[in-house]
Amino acid sequence: MATQPVRFDPSVETIADDEAETLASLKDSFREILDTTSKDYGHAVRAVHAKAHGIVRGMFTVAEGLPPVLAQGIFATPGTHDAILRISTNAGDILDDSVSLPRGVALKILDVEGSRLPGAENATTQDFIMVNGPAFAAPDAKAFSKNLKLLSKTTDRLDGLKKAMSATLRVVESALEAVGTESATLKTMGGAKPVHPLGETYFSQTPFRYGAYIAKFALFPVAPELTRLTGDIVDITARPDALREVVREELIEHGGTWELRVQLNTDLETMPIEDASAEWDQAQSPFVTVGKLTVEPQVSWENGASEMTEDSLSFSVWHGVTDHQPLGGINRARKETYELSADFRGSFNGCPIHEPSRMSDIA
Question: Would you list the DSSP string of 87-104?
Answer without folding.
Answer: EEES-SS---TTSB--EE
